[in-house]
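For reproducibility, we list the full input for the pyridoxal-5'-phosphate complex.
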Amino acid sequence: MTLTSPTDQTAAPPARSAPNELAPDEFRALGHELVDRIAEFLAGIREQRVTPGETPPEVRATLDAARGLPRSGEDAEHLLERATDLVLRHSTLNGHPRFFGYITSSASPLGALADLLAGSVNANLGGWSLAPIGTEIELQTIRWVAELLGFPTDCGGVLVSGGNMANMVCAWAATRRAATWSIREEGIGASRMTIYATSETHTWLEKFADLSGLGTRAIRRIPGDALGRADVDALRAMLERDRADGLLPGLVIGTAGTVSTGAIDPLLEMAALCRDSRIWFHVDGAYGAPVAALPQAPSDFRALALADSIAVDPHKWLYAPLEAGCALVRDAEALRETFSFTPPYYRFQKADEEPPVNFFERSPQNSRAFRALKVWLGLQQAGRDGIVRSITTDIALAERLFRNVVRHPELEAMAQGLSIVAFRWVPDALRGADAADTDAQARLDELNEQLLFELQASGECYLSNAVIGGRFALRACIVNFRTTEADVDALPGIVTRTGRRVLERMRGARAT
Ligand SMILES: *Cc1c(COP(=O)(O)O)cnc(C)c1O
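The corresponding predicted structure, in tokenized form, follows.
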């Protein structure tokens, strides 16, 4: 019997036959075919409908939904071909140049290849030793994101699934720090802790208040102006009053780019108040934080450097494919204190070694994907200058759209902030209707809502909506490196043409 080293190729035993294995040649052939199909898809994306415009039953029917789990395995080539057809034909294409919905960006094709590479190695970024290069790449990614935003690069950070998780991870760390007892050991109890945010804050906050055990009543709403931007004097008074009443203010949240209108809270004033009041200041920059890198960024973005924590979504304005959110926390220990179940004094390495980062200690997750790879590559592919150029162009396109809307006789501009434009269609019969005319306003709400559904189904372009001052608005958000001036110039025509069609149909329905 000869002993062979683990690397002795000549002694390799015959491969085990496993249902989920792919022979190298088959992998190569399937991979090439798939990459060719994706390249074709991307090359022709502009000619596609933005949405398939099918109903849920129609989409479900493509799957033979009544079919149970197959008993025996199927051929990989056939499966992948069918999956490619299904996914390419029945998806909403947020990479289409005329996709303007929510805050959902076009994704960098390099990021898709990064996901393939990451999945192939299947690195587990829960622990350093399971993902040595992966962990170091994630750490560098976090430093680069912090640098881009003007945040200290020695901060703590972690990549998570998106903005909701990034905000929650920061809020958990903040509330741990604010508690005068050990939440870990004693729980949240009948806490008197309060959290301050405007009513424009994204709904991650309600989920956090609920899931953290604080309860949604712990949320204290800061009064705001017409766009919901925080009134800092009112906040100061609230904090003083609440402290006098024995409450424990634990966290103040400012938003750098609200979801509805791209509005920016007075972040500098809020940061100063929080510093004076010794309260954790968190900035929800899921959408807007990268604007801090622009030389012409509004001055409030300088407050990002002063925040205790920031949430930012690389899968929004940094164009990473879903999912990629990032939580940054000034004091790295705060994340460990919150999420590590290894005591801080416990060290695996020798005293003179720098302790490795084990990401399982920085968020609720244990096993973790190598999502850093696509973000890391995207940051380098664009570079700081490229990031600034993309964001500047998106904002310029939104401003152009806003001017188009203002000039158009059938459209009413409602708000514009960062790369978001809110407006509505106003047909001749309702033009000049008084804001106090509740019947006319309700008609406009209904019309624009129907118009939105019709637009989404038509596949010509994709908008979402906002509610501004109680009124229904159509809303376009441009975080899309494929959108051009021509796309933005076509939008008013598409909207008004669709609006007239909807109006005719509604009139027809009333007449019958
Ligand atoms: C998008 C967004 C969120 C939620 O982020 P997800 O990535 O969708 O989880 C939270 N806050 C703001 C300001 C956002 O724009």
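The chain has a mean pLDDT of 94. The first strand starts at residue 156 and ends at 160. Both points were considered when choosing residues for closer inspection.
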